[in-house]
């Protein structure tokens, strides 16, 4: 069977001759002292007729640091130019310069071959320090590919193998993030089932690249929480192995010419040998309706072969911040002004944001994301004009969410 996945996680994976101004210490690739830029570049890695390749990484990026990922592919005897796959940090993503050439193009973080197949590839990672000389820490690098060859499938049935996972309906989330939400909801399902309390909107900004979505960014976002997470082209047999090992995973489906992500959380086989797949699907009207069971045949019909594995936490978390804020009523404008660290903070439309608040109903929920939310925009003054649907005297939590951070405030409305 052809190898589809390459992982770099240990010191021996990062050969000294492939390193320039970087070293592997304390389970991560870091810049050498007094170096502001450093490179790890793999040797040529031969593969068998790959049609597409997807990189992945888990990294800790202090403010001002970043990780740049480039790939090039060999078709026949000709190498392509280096393609920019990502220039990433947990708080921002820089625009990419070269995402297409005659051989391949980068689409949602995936390198897609054009007319010929890849016979080899190289991946290059460039670490960038901040102005104070602080280095990012890269603890995982991955590359996975899918080929034109026939992939062998194992048909070992699984019996009553499933893991509990929460579900989140995309229709209940911020409509401005609809392009990112199926991936974000699937990812949050995998993380919140392990005890995190992430909002799908936070994950959506973590997955966002430009106006679209990046599959590697999604895995990197989970990596910020300490998980071993990476995108992978894989067969159904490998999905079964993840379930058997106790892990749910995100899988990409194509149904009626539309792509969406689901969280695969279990598989079963009945007395007649009928195999089924249990999943959480955000394409639902309510969180309670996200649990779905398909026959294995139906699932295979729509599964495109791309997944995201989110496995055990192995490192300290460097999760996006939730900053405590304060809302003070502004008599002049008749709205609330957001204060952060004691300073007024008017909300700007120059950067994408989500502004939302909880609707108190007296119920307890498994995760914060299961609560009822109202989504709205800042007013013309950049202030917070709370929705009229909130009852008088209600105590609500307001979230201002952007990539890399959220501001959280609690406020009690006056009795009228």
Question: Would you give an account of this structure?
Answer:
This protein is mostly beta strands. It has five helices and 29 strands. The chain has helices spanning 178-192, 200-207, 215-224, 236-244, 296-302, and strands at residues 5-8, 19-20, 22-25, 28-31, 37-41, 45-60, 66-75, 78-79, 83-88, 104-107, 110-113, 118-128, 137-147, 161-162, 208-209, 212-213, 227-233, 249-255, 258-269, 275-281, 291-295, 303-313, 321-330, 335-340, 343-344, 354-358, 373-376, 395-402, 405-412. The strands form five sheets. Strands 1, 2, 5, 6, 7, 8, 9, 10, 11, 12 and 13 form an eleven-stranded antiparallel β-sheet that branches. Strands 14, 17, 18, 19, 20, 21 and 22 form a seven-stranded antiparallel β-sheet that branches. It has a seven-stranded mixed β-sheet with strand order 25-24-23-29-28-26-27, with helices on one face. A hairpin with a 2-residue loop joins strand 28 and strand 29. Helix 1 (178-192) packs across helix 2 and helix 2 crosses helix 3 (215-224). It is globular and about 75 Å long. The N and C termini lie far apart (70 Å). The model has no long low-confidence stretch (mean pLDDT 93).
């Amino acid at each position: 069977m052809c190898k589809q996945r390459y992982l770099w996680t240990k010191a021996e994976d990062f050969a000294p001759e492939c390193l320039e101004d970087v070293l592997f210490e304390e389970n991560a690739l870091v810049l050498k002292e007094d170096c502001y830029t450093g490179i790890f570049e793999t040797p040529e890695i031969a593969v068998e007729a790959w049609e597409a390749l997807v990189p992945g990484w888990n990294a800790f990026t202090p403010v001002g640091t970043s990780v740049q990922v480039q790939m090039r592919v060999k078709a026949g005897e000709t190498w392509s130019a280096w393609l920019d796959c990502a220039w990433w940090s947990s708080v921002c993503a820089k625009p990419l310069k070269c995402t297409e050439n005659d051989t391949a193009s980068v689409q949602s973080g995936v390198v897609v071959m054009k007319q010929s197949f890849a016979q080899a590839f190289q991946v290059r990672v460039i670490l960038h320090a901040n102005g104070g000389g602080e280095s990012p820490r890269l603890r995982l690098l991955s590359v996975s590919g899918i080929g034109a060859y026939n992939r062998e499938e194992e048909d070992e049935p699984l019996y009553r193998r499933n893991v509990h996972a929460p579900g989140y309906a995309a229709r209940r989330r911020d409509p401005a993030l609809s392009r990112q939400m199926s991936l974000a909801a699937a990812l949050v399902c995998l993380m919140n089932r392990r005890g995190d309390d992430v909002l799908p909107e936070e994950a959506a900004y973590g997955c966002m690249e430009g106006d679209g979505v990046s599959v590697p960014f999604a895995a990197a976002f989970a990596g910020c929480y300490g998980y071993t997470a990476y995108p992978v082209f894989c067969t159904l047999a490998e999905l079964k192995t993840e379930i058997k090992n106790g892990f749910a995973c995100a899988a990409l489906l194509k149904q009626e010419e539309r792509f969406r992500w689901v969280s695969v959380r279990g598989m079963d086989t009945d007395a007649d040998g009928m195999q089924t797949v249990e999943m959480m699907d955000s394409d639902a009207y309510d969180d309670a309706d996200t649990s779905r069971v398909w026959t294995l045949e139906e699932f295979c019909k729509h599964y495109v072969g791309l997944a995201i594995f989110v496995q055990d936490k192995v490192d300290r978390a460097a999760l996006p911040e939730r900053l405590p804020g304060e809302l003070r009523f502004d008599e002049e404008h008749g709205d609330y002004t957001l204060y952060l660290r004691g300073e007024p903070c008017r909300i700007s439309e120059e950067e994408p944001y989500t502004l939302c608040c909880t609707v108190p109903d007296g119920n307890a929920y498994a995760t914060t994301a299961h609560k009822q939310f109202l989504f709205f925009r800042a007013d013309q003054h950049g202030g917070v004009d709370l929705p009229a649907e909130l009852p008088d005297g209600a105590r609500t939590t307001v979230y201002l969410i952007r990539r890399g951070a959220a501001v959280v405030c609690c406020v009690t409305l006056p009795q009228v």
